[in-house]
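Assemble and predict.
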Amino acid sequence: MPIRMKVFLPTSLEDALGILRASPGAHVLAGGTDFMVEMNYGHRRPERILSLRFVDELRAWSREGATLVLGAGVRFADILSSEIATLSPALAQAARTVGSPQIRNTGTIGGNIATASPAGDTLPVLWALEAMVNIRSEKGERRIAIRDLVTGVKRNELAKDELITSISIPVADGPQEFLKVGRRNAMVIAAASLAFACNRSERRIACALGAVGPTIIRCTDAERFVGERVDWERLMVPSERDRVKFGELCSEATLAVDDHRSTARYRRHAISVMAYRAVARMS
Amino acid sequence: MEIERRYELLINGKECKVESSWLGESLMYVLRERLGLWGTKNACEQGECGSCSVLIDGMLACSCLELAATAVGVDITTVEGLGAPDNMTDIQQSFIDEGAVQCGFCTPGLVVAVHDLLLSNPAPSGQEIKEALAGNLCRCTGYGRIEAAVVKVVQQRHE
């Protein structure tokens, strides 16, 4: 028996929210690069789909002083081909590692957040930058820290009538890095990834790990350790031993497991190497 | 707009009526099974192989990852919209000349991806060619001849 389906194609955020109120079980479709795989393989059969393809408001981005506000519908390719790449270098590095040109032209940052995969490429960056996620429903607006929005493996705490509208992150205030390892350079889901961001005005370092736990992991001990050892005038960690120690502390923060993509042991090793490289590349 | 059954897609400049039994079909499936546009190939259905590459509003995309019913009103270009057997593009001819086609299964997706690359970057470096084609898998020729075919098109266009 064919399943009766309905596809909604709103052209404004207001209409999209109205549809979600009236059909709260509707599946929200952003770029579709994860969702369509599940559809093609028969793992999902939603009766109602709300496509955000034509909601242009969600594709916009702006800089408001020291804050960058990215519409949920901003695609990975948009991040690479615009000024966003210079305002948020680690986000651009992460976006460049997503899939292939085809996937980067399709997938969106809002979709990456809502899908909440532990291996979501932009997520460690958003964690390190303490991104705030702006959410709307017909009832109103709210802002939530990304670490509170993502509650587990592929789980978020969005209500059924809510949409992510945009993400607020600080404009880079110092060196940033994103590193990722997998079996290929292209078209790979991370076995482990790491985002590193220096905040010069607050004199602190933030570091977050992807694909080594059920959600992204902030390395608070490692951050504190390395933050106290930065030469802020020269923007570097002068001691080789401290750089190595930073790698070890990041590795200790992981909750890595063995799975089809890698082993816990390799993941811990990869994190220590990537963390070392991130801090070594600062200067 | 709401779609419950029939819809129309704009493919290679033509309005095509689609009547599917199920609205969950991917654009790749609709192109092949409903509209008989077999140039777009189906291999992985998860965006890994690039054999189903098309242009959507001028952007390279995997048609297997597009829900066909949401692609109404956008401009879809398939490999059939780029060239025909009796009127091949320089890219298609170069693939033949350089031996970049063996079984041919990946070729249409690669032709679309190369077309897209050369529109945005008419003189790509070897590294840029590799990165632009990283989403298209080939299991027989090896990628050397494919890259050579792209280099040849670039040379010809600059002559």
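Residues 56 and 104 of chain B are 23 Å apart (CA to CA).
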